[in-house]
Specification:
Layout (H helix, E strand, L loop, with lengths): L5 H41 L5 H28 L6 H25 L6 H21 L4 H22 L2 H76 L3 E5 L6 E4 L3 H5 L3 H4 L4 H4 L2 H20 L8 E8 L5 E12 L5 E10 L1 H52 L5 H28 L8 E3 L1 H12 L6 E5 L7 E3 L1 H18 L5 E11 L13 E10 L27 H11 L3 E7 L3 E9 L21 E5 L3 H13 L3 E5 L2 H13 L6 E5 L8 H11 L5 E5 L17 E4 L4 H17 L1
Parallel strand pairs: 7-9, 13-14, 13-15, 15-16, 16-17
Antiparallel strand pairs: 1-2, 1-5, 3-4, 4-5, 6-8, 9-10, 10-12, 11-12
Helix pairs in contact: 1-2, 1-3, 1-4, 1-6, 2-3, 3-5, 4-5, 4-6, 5-6, 11-12, 12-15, 13-14, 14-15, 17-18
C-alpha cells in the first residue's frame, strides 16, 4: 500500500468529491426521462378519478422542473469544473431534486384516491418506483437522494395513517420500512461508489510507484527464492531419512506425484517406479476398494462446501511388495490445497504396522481361546445344574408312580401319589420353559393385554402361603402392551419368589407401574431403548439388599446364592425382556432393599380384545391327523383327542401324513384338522408338510405343535398358514380349547 501525506490525502478527497458529483450529472438524464415517463403514466392511471385540470397543471409543473434540471446538466457538461465551483454544482443539483420531490410528493397527497383501492395501489407503485430509482441515480451524493426521496414518500405515508383502518395503517408501516430499506441501499451504493473511486485513485498512485518498487521487489523475490531452496533441501533431507513413506497423489487416485525414498525399504520399488502405480497396482483388491470409497467420500464432502478444511482420514490397508508378498500399513491422509484453498490432490504418510498387526492378531487369538474356555466352563455348570434338577424331578415322578402302582395302595392314596407326580412334572416343565427362554430361540407368542391383571395374578399366586405383604400402585390409564402373558407371568413369579426368599417370608413388596414416554435416550438415567411409548414396572422389596460384588452377576445363568436354587430365574427373565424388545435392570442398597425395573414397549392407541378364557375340557367331533416323530407323544395325543370326543390317525413324519391325508380324501373321509410337529429331525417338518397339504387341499386346517424351535412360526403361526398352536407339553384343557376353536368354531362360521 502507498503511504499518504496530508497533501495527497487532500487530493484524494477532492478527487472523490469531483467523481461523485460528476456521476450525479452523468445519470441525471436517465432520471429526468424516467420522471417524465412516470408522470405521464400516473396521469393516465388517475385521469378518471382526479380532476383533469389539476392533473394537467401538475404534469406541466413537473415538466418545467425537469426541463430546468436538463438545462443544468447541459451547462455542467459545457462549463465543467471551476476552481471554486464544486459546491455550487452540487447544491444546484440538490435543489433541483428537492423541487422535483416536492412535486411528486404533492401528487401523493392531493391525487390520493380515497374511494378506489386499485388507483391507490397504482399511485403508490409509481411513487415507490421513483424512490427506488433514486437509490441508483442519486446514491453518489446522499444529500441528493434524501432531497428527492423524503418529499416524495412522506405525503402518501401520512395519507395511509390518516385513513386509520388496519389495512392502511399496515401500508403506512410498510412505507416506513420501505424508506428505511431504500436509505440503507442508497448508503451502501454510496460507499461502493466511494470505494471504487478510492481504489481507482490508489491504483494510479501504485502505478506511479511501480517503477521505483520494481528493483526492490526483484531483490525480495531473490531472497525468498533462496529461502525456498533452503527449505526444500531441509525437507528432502527429512523425507530421505524417514522410515515412514510420504506421498502426494492425484485427487482421483490415478497416480502419485511424489513418493519419498523410504518406499524402497517399505515395498522394494524405487520412487520413480512407484510413482507410475495407481491404487490398484499398489493395494490388494479389498484395500483398493476401501481406499476408493474414502477418496470418493472426501471429494463429496469437499464439493458440499460444509466440511472441515483441516480434516484427515486414517486407514489400515494391505500393500503389495515387489516380491509378491503383502504388508499392512497405517495410512493417514488429507486434502492438499492450493493458495485459494481448492483441493488439488491428496497428501499423506504411510507407516508399516505389520508387526503391530501380528501382535493384535495374537492377542485376539488368545482372547478367543479364553472366551471359549469360559464358555465350556459355563456349559459344564449349566449341564450340571440341569442334571441335578431333573434328577430330583424324575426321582419324585418315578417314586410317586411306583407307590401309586402298589397293589395295596388305597384309591385315595393312589390319587395323592399321582398328584405329587403331576406337580413334579409341572416343575420340570417350568424349568424347561426357563431354559428355552434363556437359550437362543423360544420366541414369545404375543397378544395385546393390560399388564396390571397379569402382574396381580402372578404375584398373588407366588405369595400364597407367605407372610410377605404386597402393595400395588397401578394408575387407571395404563397403556396396553403386546406381550406373551405366560412368559411375563414367569418373570413376575421369579422376581416375587426371589424377594420373598430374600426377606425370609417377612416384609413388604411394592409393585408400581406407570406410562413412560422416551423422547430421547436420556430420561431419569441412560436407557438403551429407542424413543417411543413404554410401560415401566418397578418391583421393590425391603430385604437385606444385594452386595455390590454380586450385583453385576445376578442375570448370569446358574448364578445363585440359594442352596436349593438353580440360578435360571433372573437369567430367563432377562432373556424374556430382551425378546420383548424391553429392558430389565436392578438397583440395590445393603440394608434397604432391592428394586427391579421392567420396561415394556407400549401401544397407547391399540384396542385390547375382551374374551373369557375357558378352563374346562371342551368336547368336539371330527377326525384328526396327528404327525409327530415321538411314538409316546403320538399315543398320548391320540388318547387326549379321544377324551375330547375326536377320532384320530397317527403319522410319524411328513411323508406318511401326506399319504394318509390323500387317502382320506380319496375315500371321502377328510380330516377335520391336522396337528403337525414343527421340527422332525432327518425328515419333513410341519411347515413343509403344510405346504404340501395345501397343494392337495387348500382348505386344510392345521395346528402347529412344538416343544422348542428357533423358527418364528410358533410366535407368528397365522402368517405361515396355521390356524392354531399348542406348545409341548400341553394339558388336556389346553389341547381341547385349541381343537374346539379350530374344528368346531371355525366350522360354524
Amino acid at each position: 500500500m502507498p503511504s499518504f501525506t496530508p497533501s495527497s490525502f487532500l487530493s484524494l478527497q477532492t478527487q472523490l468529491y469531483r467523481e461523485q458529483v460528476a456521476q450525479l450529472y452523468a445519470l441525471a438524464p436517465i432520471g429526468i426521462l424516467a420522471s417524465t415517463v412516470n408522470s405521464l403514466i400516473l396521469v393516465f392511471i388517475l385521469w378518471n378519478v382526479i380532476s383533469s385540470t389539476l392533473l394537467l397543471v401538475w404534469v406541466t409543473g413537473l415538466a418545467i422542473v425537469n426541463a430546468l434540471r436538463m438545462v443544468l446538466v447541459v451547462c455542467f457538461r459545457r462549463v465543467g469544473w471551476s476552481r471554486d465551483g464544486d459546491l455550487r454544482w452540487r447544491d444546484w443539483f440538490v435543489v433541483g431534486n428537492m423541487v422535483s420531490g416536492l412535486i411528486w410528493g404533492a401528487a401523493g397527497f392531493f391525487f390520493y384516491p380515497l374511494d378506489s383501492l386499485p388507483h391507490e395501489f397504482g399511485l403508490i407503485f409509481v411513487l415507490g418506483g421513483m424512490v427506488a430509482g433514486s437509490t441508483a441515480m442519486h446514491s453518489a451524493v446522499l444529500n441528493a437522494f434524501w432531497a428527492f426521496s423524503i418529499p416524495t414518500a412522506v405525503p402518501f405515508t401520512i395519507k395511509f395513517f390518516q385513513h386509520g383502518d388496519d389495512l392502511h395503517v399496515s401500508m403506512g408501516v410498510l412505507s416506513l420500512v420501505f424508506m428505511t430499506m431504500m436509505g440503507v441501499v442508497a448508503r451502501r451504493n454510496h460507499l461502493l461508489i466511494a470505494k471504487g473511486i478510492t481504489l481507482q485513485h490508489e491504483n494510479a498512485q501504485l502505478l506511479d510507484h511501480a517503477t521505483t518498487a520494481r528493483d526492490h521487489l526483484e531483490a525480495m523475490v531473490k531472497a525468498r527464492t533462496a529461502e525456498l531452496q533452503a527449505s526444500e533441501a531441509r525437507y528432502r533431507l527429512l523425507a530421505n531419512n524417514l522410515t515412514d513413506v510420504i506421498w502426494v497423489m492425484a485427487l482421483d487416485g490415478s497416480h502419485f506425484t511424489y513418493i519419498s525414498p523410504s518406499i524402497t525399504s517399505f515395498l522394494g520399488f524405487t520412487p520413480e517406479k512407484a510413482m507410475t502405480f495407481s491404487l490398484d497396482d499398489v493395494l490388494t483388491p479389498d484395500s483398493a476398494r476401501q481406499a476408493r470409497v474414502v477418496l470418493e467420500e472426501e471429494l463429496r464432502l469437499e464439493s458440499s462446501g460444509h466440511a472441515d478444511r483441516f480434516r484427515s482420514f486414517l486407514l489400515e490397508l494391505e500393500h503389495y511388495r515387489k516380491d509378491g508378498s503383502t504388508v499392512w500399513a497405517e495410512v493417514r491422509g488429507s486434502l492438499l490445497r492450493d493458495e485459494q484453498g481448492q483441493g488439488i490432490g491428496m497428501v499423506g504418510v504411510t507407516r508399516d504396522v505389520t508387526e503391530r498387526k501380528k501382535i493384535d492378531e495374537e492377542k485376539q487369538r488368545l482372547e478367543v481361546q479364553l472366551l471359549r474356555s469360559q464358555k465350556i466352563e459355563a456349559v459344564g455348570t449349566l449341564a450340571g445344574g440341569i442334571a441335578h434338577d431333573f434328577n430330583n424331578f424324575l426321582t419324585s415322578v418315578l417314586g410317586n408312580i411306583d407307590l401309586a402302582q402298589q397293589a395295596g395302595t388305597a384309591h385315595e392314596s393312589r390319587a395323592d401319589f399321582l398328584s405329587k407326580a403331576e406337580q413334579a412334572t409341572l416343575r420340570a416343565k417350568d424349568l424347561t420353559q426357563q431354559l428355552l427362554t434363556f437359550a437362543k430361540g423360544g420366541e414369545p407368542i404375543k397378544q395385546l393385554t393390560f399388564l396390571d391383571k397379569v402382574i396381580k395374578e402372578s404375584a398373588s399366586f407366588s405369595l400364597s402361603g407367605s407372610a410377605v405383604a404386597c402393595e400395588y400402585a397401578f394408575p387407571p390409564d395404563l397403556w396396553p402392551t403386546d406381550v406373551d402373558p405366560g412368559q411375563i407371568s414367569q418373570v413376575i413369579h421369579n422376581l416375587v419368589i426371589n424377594a420373598v426368599e430374600a426377606m425370609s417370608n417377612e416384609g413388604m413388596i411394592t409393585i408400581r407401574a406407570r406410562n413412560l414416554l422416551l423422547p430421547s435416550q436420556t430420561l431419569e438415567r441412560p436407557i438403551p431403548l429407542p424413543p417411543g411409548p413404554y410401560l415401566k414396572v418397578s418391583l421393590c422389596d425391603t430385604g437385606p439388599g444385594i452386595p455390590d460384588e454380586q450385583l453385576p452377576k445376578v442375570f448370569d445363568p446358574y448364578f445363585t446364592t440359594k442352596s436349593e436354587g438353580h440360578g435360571l430365574g433372573l437369567a430367563s427373565g432377562y432373556s424374556i425382556m430382551k425378546k420383548h424388545a424391553g429392558l430389565m435392570t436392578v438397583e440395590s442398597k445393603l440394608g434397604v432393599g432391592t428394586e427391579f425395573t421392567l420396561i415394556f414397549p407400549a401401544a397407547p392407541d391399540a384396542q385390547v380384545p375382551s374374551f373369557v378364557e375357558a378352563v374346562q375340557t371342551r368336547k368336539g367331533d371330527g377326525r384328526i391327523l396327528v404327525m409327530d416323530d415321538d411314538a409316546h407323544v403320538r399315543m398320548v395325543a391320540g388318547e387326549l383327542l379321544t377324551h375330547c370326543g375326536y377320532r384320530y390317525e397317527l403319522a410319524k413324519d411328513g411323508s406318511e401324513a401326506i399319504t394318509r391325508y390323500r387317502q382320506a380324501m380319496q375315500q371321502g373321509e377328510c380330516f377335520s384338522a391336522v396337528i403337525l410337529d414343527l421340527t422332525i429331525p432327518g425328515s419333513m417338518g410341519g411347515q413343509e408338510t403344510l405346504r404340501r397339504l395345501q397343494q392337495i387341499d387348500p382348505a386344510v386346517k392345521a395346528i402347529v405343535s412344538s416343544g422348542y424351535s428357533q423358527d418364528p412360526v410358533m410366535a407368528n403361526y397365522q402368517a405361515h398358514g396355521f390356524q392354531g398352536v399348542v406348545r409341548k407339553p400341553y394339558s388336556l384343557a389346553e389341547l381341547s380349547k385349541v381343537m374346539y376353536q379350530v374344528v368346531m368354531e371355525s366350522s360354524s362360521t
